[in-house]
Amino acid sequence: MNNLGNKIRIWRNYRKLTLEEVDHLTGIHYARLSKFERGVEIPNQQMLARIEKALNVSFDDLEEIDDEIELLINKFIDTLFYLNEDYDDYLRIIEKRKEDFILNQNYYKVQLIEYIIYVIQENAVEANKIESILDKIVEKRTLYEQLYLEYKAINIYNLRKFQSAIDILESAMAISSYNKSSAMIYYHLSILYHGCARYEESEKYIQKAKQLFVEGCSYKRVLNCDIQLANYYIRVGRYDLAIDLLKSCIETMRYLNVNTHTKALALRNTAWTYILLNEFDNSLKILEAAEQLEPENGNLILYKIWCNYKLEKYNTAKEIISDNYELSKDRNYGDRFQLFDYLVNQGKQRPAKRTITQAKKVYFKLADEQRFGNLFFYLDILIDLLERDGDKDELIHFLKIKGHLGK
Hints:
Cro/C1-type_HTH, DNA binding, mainly alpha, Serine Threonine Protein Phosphatase 5, Tetratricopeptide repeat
């Protein structure tokens, strides 16, 4: 079907007219109209004018909308690559122009923009609504299918379905035909492999992505690659390299227009690395800066409680817990917050059974969700509690688990 034929069909359906009714309005036989819609025949200018009058539309104006949509999605692709992050501006433009866009044959490209933004914002409800549509209409073996598959993989990754997400992302890579696309896919592959603890593959892809972002002068993406690379160093125990790289990232942010979340993330990751090094005073200094940017972040609050607990500043830890007790109801942080509450309140005393039970609950939840970044940390807390409690059988059991996970 050619573009003109598709537009005639779309607008005829929009006007809720049958081919026979358009026949009556134009004097063009409905069988011939059908040929126009299917692209078997192209109407001459006189016939086209009669069809336009019957449908109350100008196909020349529709060509301008085609161009507008093409410009919009090309600009959006650059926004993704250069991490300009003006996503709400795109949603406002789409909402304002939706009445014009919605009847265009390329409207799926507009829907693709919306879908990607919802995935980035982790708005699964809205993303899933559009996904069911895009599955059927995105053109195969095109840049648009590659983009769709790439962010469909991220949407699935957010559900912790690692292998399915990786498979889809590799399908997107098979379609990719230029460096900007490949850079983005490498970056996302790195995140996926990191999420399922395949760290060597994660590091390989982040290095590939970084090289292509450097070549494309996408310096914000290069910065994100370095933050991700620092995460790799943390996971493999190279805390010295992680600290140096994160400090370099924080310094670089002074010269780039980086959003608040990225700045706060780099600071929190630095603080987390100091926690793993048992340098709790240094961690608290970094957390002070992070708190200025995102004071209500759940990880920030947990890090502050832990540092004060380890420094035996129990009263300060209790104040932080009291000031943020609503976090105990949070789906992501509540169990860990409750564990820290128990730990702080018992101090150096022999751990209570409820504390050990809560530590097990946290560990098993993290294991079930495959959150490997936190798994060892909370497993070590559980092992320490069992050792202090003198429960040798349970201690041996979880030491074996730790040994197995470490292989």
